[in-house]
Amino acid sequence: MFANLLIGLREGLEASLIVGILIAYVIKVDRKDVLPRIWSGVAVAIVVSIGLGLGLEALTKALGADAEPYIAGFASIAAAAMVTWMIFWMAKTARSLKGELETEVATSLSAGGWSLVFIAFLAVVREGAETTLFVWAAAQNADSSIRPLIGAVAGIIIAALLGYLIYRGSLKLNLSKFFLWSGIFLIVIAASMLVGGIGDLQSEAGILPFLTGTAYDFSNFIPEDSILFIVLRGLFGFHNSMTWLQFIIWLVFIVITLTAFLRGSLRRKITPVETTEIRIIRSVN
Q: What residue segments make up the domains of the chain, in order of their start?
């Protein structure tokens, strides 16, 4: 549940900051008349994101139980890929994000402003689709209850509140450190999601029939009905057993992805553009 709360918080905060930049800019250039178009794009993106989750659930039921391991497996791998891409995308583009968005908005306003609907839609639907896919895959692989959804919704609500407080100038948040530490944590979660999908395809779907031997098995010490397992699963996506294929993929993914992420983070300056963006948003008010 905590992992889903974090993914909802991070994705929601990214979307909130982007929408905040859009709103701040149109107010800055005295074009409040186009604000409903921004909110229309946000609303459509939310509907599409919810529709994605409902569509995945409907597809799973329509294809039957035999297809569920395939859908869950590939969805988990896709979710891990999308979360990993999101982490690196935000780290790479954060410094130029504000300028790029303002350029797009200026171009849209000169052409009538209707493309603002599309700009706002893309800004939110990317984050919404990633969150939906991640939560759906988590529910299929780790927790079939409503807890993953509750965690994600709670994270999104907190993100919306933080985004509003930042926009109003009531809160200062070190976004550089937030995205750094949440990125590290989400790499671990993405690795867990990846090997969970591999496990579905290997053991249930039977399409990866190699390296099926047990790399480790802690199920006798940390059974799945224990509080410790629930805590470790919720916080880190812990697996109490893995095949050799899962373990090798998990280890390679963690080493390569975490090394690349930290190396890129260390090359950047300590003073990020995220803090500047908050000051600019505050100055508009």
A: 2-284
